[in-house]
Amino acid sequence: MVNKNKFFAFVAFIQFLLVITECTAQPDQIVEVFRHGARGPLAGYDPSWNLNQWGVLTPVGMRQQYILGKVLSQKYSRLFQSSSYNYSQIYMLTDTTPRCIQSAYAQFYGIYLGYGPSLNNSYPAQLAVPPYQDARVQNLAASLPNSEAIANNDIPNLVNIVDNTNAAIFQGDSGFYCPNVAQWIIQNTNDSASQEALAIFQDTINNVNQYLDGSQKLKTPQDIVSFGDTMLANIADNRPMPGGFTDTVLRDNLTAAFSWFNFHLHNGQLIQRQLGAYNLLDAVLNQLKAFRQGQSYNPVALYSGHDSNIVAMLGALGVVTEECLMANFQSYTKNHSQPVPYLNCYFPYFASNLIFEFYNETDSAYVKVFYNNAVLPLCNDQEACSYEDFLVFVNNATGNNTAESFKEKCGAKERASQWAEDALKTTIESTSNKTVSMALMAVTALCIILFGKMVFNAKRYKQLVKETSSAPFADYLQVNNSKNDF
Question: CA 62, CA 36: separation in Å to the nearest integer?
């Protein structure tokens, strides 16, 4: 019995040491960029999805983010300090897309559930009611314990939603904020790398097409990306595969094809990776800099975005490349049971995240980066980058861009010039229309005068009508009908 007690005491001591070690090893700041949770598909390859479910966060996606939030609150307990939540210390920014907003709240609930505000035990709960005339109000108030201000102590977290003027932080690879994206995608679609990949994945494409009718058969890289997106949405929602195939190897092969083409179309060129990652990586650096310089006291900064954000950052940092995606696929086709050679080289699944841990040591500050909790060797293949080296590494990865160079390389400045030109053209046309209108008014006034004269001089009525030609009216109608851009 004594030996058993000593054993349990020893185990307890070891656990205590592990807890102490984890607490002392926690970073001073974390910056997280995460993809929204599982959603409906973005294309109509599976009729079991209603149109109003397309692109919408599912209950599965909410659960994913909730669990992620719970895990983060446990892993970084010293930073979150859930029992003393402070709005000024926790920063959350989300894209305007509803699934990103909902994911942000779901993750927050996981972090802070059970740590919300409560009423004083002696407080008369009947006073904490809205002025809504319904007996159910008082009945509900009487049933709630004072230990909860709201059910389950869900705390009303502050989530910042980026406005449209700054939405490029999440939408930097969209044609709206980066007009050149469209031509880059076309180039990548038709280049030799795409043609070679289509040949490599041809067996997979043919096998999938056996399950699809003529209108849905996969022919282009875009088809593969759209169908693969639907397949991954079905997997997350525990639905049958679109088309009805059940072969898991075919599923995995198609996932590889989806991953490669998705990456290649949107990140196949160096400039795409640099510009696609610039805005968010710049935001990460700004968070670290502000914290380092004592200008900000946000120990936690969270960004709710899309797979395009994660994969662009991974591409710029050199973690995910076309080469390692293809190498993993070819390794898998040779031996399904062996691990792939590049474990961190994969497309970000729903609720994937990147976490930047900042250890703000006075003389030796450093940064660690984690992809779904796997540490990434970045600076000279080291798991930790010195703060200064990390700044240089990230700036190099994004091409040392600035907000102005981003617009210039994206063609946004040319588009702005085009907008100005269009505005000037519209003004000229508007002025021209006003000139025509003034001429019409003059003709109309003349007609009124002439009509008056016709009334007072019946003898000259026919002559006046003859003199007042309808040609100016016909000319105006012809000119006006030719301008359909009003």
Answer: 9
Beta bridge partners of 375: 370
**CATH number assigned to the domain with residue range 2-116+154-410, chosen from the 4 options 3.30.450.40, 3.10.320.10, 3.30.70.920, 3.40.50.1240:** 3.40.50.1240
What pTM did the predictor assign?
A: 0.79
pLDDT at 144 over 50: yes
pLDDT tens readout for residues 384-422: 999 999 999 999 999 999 999 999 999 987 654 444 444
Relative orientation angle of helices 221-236 and 248-267, to the nearest 10 degrees: 130
Helix or strand (DSSP H, E) at 311: helix 307-316
Tokens in use for 223? 């088809």
- Rg of the Cα trace of the chain? 32
The residues spanned by each domain of the chain are 2-116+154-410, 412-481
- Find where tokens 């008056």 sit: 452
What is the number of other CB atoms lying within 10 angstroms of the CB of residue 164? 10
Q: How much is the pLDDT for 83?
A: 56
Token output for 180: 């050149």
Can you tell me the distance from the alpha carbon of 184 to that of 170, in angstroms, rounded to the nearest whole number? 19
